[in-house]
Amino acid sequence: MGKTELLYSDPIAAAVVAAEEIAKKTGIASHDVALVMGSGWVSAVDALGAPVFECNAEEIEGFLPPAVEGHSGKIRSYEIDANGKKMRALVFLGRTHLYEGKGIEPVVHGVRTAVKAGCKVIILTNACGGINTAYKVGQPVLIRDHISLTAVSPLSGATFVDLTDLYSKRIREIVKKEDSSLQEGVYVHWRGPTYETPAEILMMRTMGADLVGMSTVPEAIAAHALGAEVLGISLVTNAAAGVTGEKLNHEEVIAAGKAAADRMGSLLKGVIPKLL
Ligand code: 8IG
Asked: What residue spans define the domains of the chain?
């Protein structure tokens, strides 16, 4: 079990401590970009080459041990060549979710740590259910906007943050240049751990949602509130409840992620050097 007292009493201070620990352990004073790898995305990072550093997340201030299969709970540092310039990527393999019941602070601790470690761009990846019937299993979709159905914010107090350009249009354009077949969609954040009922999926579709999952939204808000630019990419790993009549299972999610890992990996590798 990691140390979490500071995380709950002063989450920003905990992120500063965590960032200092990462700088010390890696010997890298500042990172440029962070990637949070969700279910099924973990092997996509192989495209970035060999990490220059890896540790278990719970060795760093405020990080909890992993709770879900496919989320290995590692923090890595990669050196990436950006046209002769050196870029530093901080990679989180796995994340903490709201459905784990530990509250919102551990959910956003990774991205806050990344911003305090210097990251100007945060790439959030996830596996999700497809609400939009045009989506196929194994298809990546850029998050254009979101709908939060959890009633939980990572922010409190009179911090009225504008979310108009939460999922950076600038970065979405860069990614679409890299892969012009990519579509954009609206992601709904559902607390879980249950999947939706078919009636709830109908409600979401009626609200204008295309994708549904149990992550990403609090992290995007927390990163944006600290001044970072956010890219969100969802991998559709199942049709949402009631869309096909099939039941949902976690194995299907892991298998679809594995099958798409190469495509996701080369997309990330192509995009990262163009971000800064
Ligand atoms: I993977 O169908 C994955 N995560 N809420 N609904 C929700 N989360 C998901 C789903 C889904 N598929």
From this structure: 5-274
User: Is 249 noted as a catalytic residue in this protein?
Assistant: no
pLDDT tens digits, one per residue of 129-154: 999 999 999 999 999 999 999 999 99
Ligand 1 and 192: CB distance under 6 A? yes
What are the CA-CA distances from residue 274 to residues 73, 165, 185, 213 (Å)?
Answer: 27, 19, 22, 28
Q: Is the CB of 196 under 6 A from ligand 1?
A: yes
How far, in Å, from the CA of 82 to the mean position of ligand 1? 34
**5-274 belongs to CATH 3.40.50.1580:** yes
Residue 108: HSE in the Cβ half-sphere, 13 Å Cα cutoff: 24
Q: What residues does 75 pair with on adjacent strands? A: 55, 92
Give this prediction's pTM.
0.95
Which tokens go with 79?
Answer: 């050196």
Distance of CA 38 to the CA centre of its chain: 6
Q: How far apart are CA 270 and CA 182, in angstroms?
A: 14
